[in-house]
Automatic annotation (TrEMBL):
Protein name: UvrABC system protein C
Domain UVR: 211-246
InterPro entries listed in its UniProt record: GIY-YIG_endonuc (IPR000305), GIY-YIG_endonuc_sf (IPR035901), GIY-YIG_UvrC_Cho (IPR047296), Hlx-hairpin-Hlx_DNA-bd_motif (IPR003583), RuvA_2-like (IPR010994), UVR_dom (IPR001943), UVR_dom_sf (IPR036876), UvrABC_protein_C (IPR050066)
Subcellular location(s) of the protein: Cytoplasm
Gene name tied to this protein: uvrC
PANTHER family: UVRABC SYSTEM PROTEIN C (PTHR30562:SF1), UVRC/OXIDOREDUCTASE (PTHR30562)
Organism field: Methylophaga muralis
Domain GIY-YIG: 24-102
């Protein structure tokens, strides 16, 4: 069910009459601006009350007031329950990315440890859908945390970690067997029963059952000693010692089960949520998130917005420990339980071991926030020093840099990267495939890329930069001047950065249009470091684009350029001649013999490979 005020038919949005017409049922509302863009998505237990609260005369934050002023329509979707509304809200936020919502931009899948379901199981890293048969452990916060666990487990329990293709084709033990990190099941040097013992101990260790593992190993050591197998007993003893040391290194060894610990801090216009991963009573590390659009929220509001975006559609641990109480805690808990299929507890710990985990997460959050603030401060300082060095009237809050990449003139690509006071703005990066120029003509390539970029700007697409940075010397700068003059943008500052004779960092030559002579910056100048960072990013992005374009071209058959030669005919020709090389050698008469190839089409194919004839 949807109720929408259409801005094209209504001269002005009337919130009073709109709210009066609203239902009191649960649902989701989408606020739309004059351009038809959804600027905010929210859910409500009672749509009339929730939407009406945005239009009261007092008590609104400045951010909310700015948002409400842009509303020309509100779209409503009624749901059966508040749980449904929460799930729909989360899906719409991820799809539409409204600028006034808290946005969590991290869709990367986390790594797990997988013990396969083979007769001789393999221990490996796994990402993505859990389609493979076996037991999964995690998630881990990073690939580094997984590698650390794999390395530790390989020393404790020599379960194979090699690829199945490698394992199945061994005729003798590999180096891992020589250094006692594998028992060589590939060549039958261990029985399946003995191998499964190591597998079971690995599983118990990953489940946090360290003490049970040590008890079993102690019994095995006693049996081996009584059987006078002293070398085996000593080996088991060393495992027990290693396990005890591992257990000692854990911050809390008595806490069992799987938990995530969420610590939120909002300060100095920056918000951070630190997520610590506790699996089987072991701390697997943490990850910092800086959600966009959350700087004016309280910590409680931040966590309320963060939790559904982070957990819906992902694995959810049995317990989520929070640094602050959250609104709708019961609702969030119910939805997560329904989605995950198991009980989920959301709570702020008050005592016991859980408070120690929370304190550790808060400490990490403080460190992450301090580093972020420091980084932002340093970046602002670099921009300010660049303004001073170039004697600009205003702080250049947005820098766009262009670079060209090709291989001997083939598949030329121009890159445009954007930096602001917050660092790289990757969503504004652009690549331009350059066509219709002489191969290797960097000046023409630069002219084409700048023309396309700034013609779009004149048409109202994109934002105007405060400084245009060109990777190149006076020739490239001249092209930039001509393009901007044609488009009446001559007031835009242009800075060229050319590598020195030895192409070493710190020896760059800088040319600012309108300023006589070169701009001189010392090698340790923060302003020069900023320019180098932007230039290097443009270079990287251009090379990446060029390589992608070149690789795509090499996957494409030259026959695709011939009009009238569709996929079926191309396939028939290649099958008849056994490959493109033989097609090149064929004459017109030979080509005509292929079913579906007319004389005219055969001539086109021949001419493609023999332009001189």
């Amino acid at each position: 069910m949807s109720q929408t005020e259409n801005p094209t038919t209504e001269p002005k949005f009337d919130p009073v009459s709109f709210v009066k017409s609203l239902t009191s049922r649960p649902g989701v509302y989408r606020m739309v601006d004059a351009e038809g863009t959804v600027i905010y998505v929210g859910k409500a237990k009672n749509l009339k009350k929730r939407v009406g609260s945005y239009f009261r005369s007092t008590g609104l934050t400045s951010k909310t007031q700015v948002m409400v002023a842009q509303i020309v329509a509100i779209e409503i979707t009624v749901t059966h329950t508040e749980n449904e509304a929460l799930i729909l809200e989360n899906n719409l936020i991820k799809e539409l990315m409204p600028r006034y919502n808290v946005l969590l931009r991290d869709d990367k899948s986390y790594p797990y440890l997988l013990i396969s379901g083979d007769d001789y199981p393999r221990l490996s890293v796994h990402r993505g859908a859990k389609r493979k048969k076996g037991k999964y452990f995690g998630p881990y916060p990073s690939a580094g945390a997984v590698r650390e666990s794999l390395n530790l487990l390989q020393k404790l329990f020599p379960v194979r970690q090699c690829e199945d293709s490698y394992y199945q084709n061994r005729s003798r033990p590999c180096l891992q067997y020589q250094i006692k990190r594998c028992t060589a099941p590939c060549v039958g040097l261990i029985s399946e029963a003995d191998y499964q013992k190591d597998v079971q101990h690995t599983i118990m260790f990953l489940e946090g059952k360290n003490q049970q593992v040590m008890d079993e190993l102690s019994n095995q050591m006693d049996v081996a000693s009584q059987s006078l197998q002293f070398e085996q007993a000593a080996s088991i003893r060393d495992k027990i010692i290693s396990l005890r040391r591992v257990q000692e290194r854990q911050y809390v060894s008595s806490m069992q089960g799987d938990s995530d610990v969420l610590a939120a801090i909002v300060r100095d216009g920056i918000a951070v949520v630190e997520v610590s991963f506790v699996r089987g009573g072991r701390n697997l590390g943490s990850k910092s998130y800086f959600p966009k659009g959350s700087s004016d929220l309280t910590e409680s509001e931040l966590l309320t917005a963060f939790i559904p975006q982070y957990y819906l559609g992902k694995d959810v641990p049995a317990e989520i420990l929070l640094s602050h109480e959250v609104e709708d805690a019961q609702l969030l808990q119910d939805v997560l339980q329904t989605e995950s299929g198991h009980k989920v507890s959301l709570r702020k710990p008050q005592r016991g071991h859980a408070t120690r985990w929370l304190q550790m997460a808060m400490t990490n959050a403080e460190i992450s926030l301090t580093q972020r603030i420091s980084s932002r401060s340093n970046l602002l300082q670099r921009f300010e020093m660049l303004q001073d060095a170039l004697e600009l009237d205003e702080l250049p809050k947005r820098i766009e840099c262009f670079d060209i990449s090709h291989t001997s003139g083939e598949r030329t690509v121009a890159s445009c990267v954007v930096f602001g006071l917050e660092g790289a703005i990757k969503s504004d990066y652009r690549k331009f495939n350059i066509e219709g120029i002489t191969g290797g003509d960097d000046y023409a390539a630069m002219h084409q890329a700048l023309s396309r970029r700034f013609t779009r700007l004149n048409n109202g697409e994109g934002k105007r930069p405060d400084l245009l940075l060109i990777d190149g010397g006076k020739g490239q700068i001249k092209e930039a001047q001509e393009v901007l003059a044609e488009l009446n943008l001559s007031d835009l500052p242009i800075l060229g950065i050319a590598k020195g004779p030895a192409r070493k960092p710190g020896e760059e030559t800088l040319f600012l249009v309108g300023r006589a002579g070169e701009v001189t910056l010392s090698a340790d100048s923060p302003a020069l470091h900023l320019l180098q960072q932007v230039r290097d990013e443009a270079h990287r992005f251009a090379i990446t684009g060029h390589r992608q374009r070149r690789a795509k071209a090499r996957k494409t058959s030259t026959l695709e350029d011939i009009a009238g030669l569709g996929p079926k005919r191309r396939q028939k020709i290649l099958q008849q001649f056994g490959g493109l090389q033989e097609v090149k050698r064929a004459g017109v008469e030979d080509l005509q013999r292929v079913e579906g190839i007319s004389a005219a089409l055969a001539q086109k194919i021949y001419d493609l490979f023999h332009p001189d004839n």
